[in-house]
Write a structure and sequence with these properties.
With 91 residues, the chain is an alpha+beta fold. The chain has one domain. It contains two helices and three strands. Strand 2 and strand 3 form a beta hairpin. The longest helix has 15 residues.
Length: 91
């Protein structure tokens, strides 16, 4: 079986796997710190996967520090994806 992940996210799940979350569930997705556009590209792909599945989600982002090398810290990001009802209106 081929890997389903993305170069923008760490882990083995594909975007469609996240679109299959049950209503109200949340997922935390760690972005690849080596990809400068990971946040934008992963967000676009997640929104597209949810749309294709006929679902909606809300995506938020957080910054974290990761140790790139011993004693060297680098800023990285992770996404929090939460499924919402189709009639959800963002405020």
């Amino acid at each position: 079986m081929a890997a389903r992940g993305s170069r923008y996210i760490l882990g083995h799940l594909g975007y469609s796997d996240y679109a299959g979350l049950k209503d109200g569930q949340e997922a935390v997705i760690v972005l690849n710190p080596a990809e400068p556009n990971a946040r934008a590209e992963a967000s676009k792909s997640l929104k597209a996967a949810f749309t294709k599945a006929g679902r909606r989600c809300v995506i938020s982002t957080q910054s974290i520090l990761v140790e790139a090398e011993p004693g060297t810290w680098k800023q990285s990001h992770f996404l929090v994806v939460k499924t919402v009802p189709l009639n959800h209106v963002e405020s």
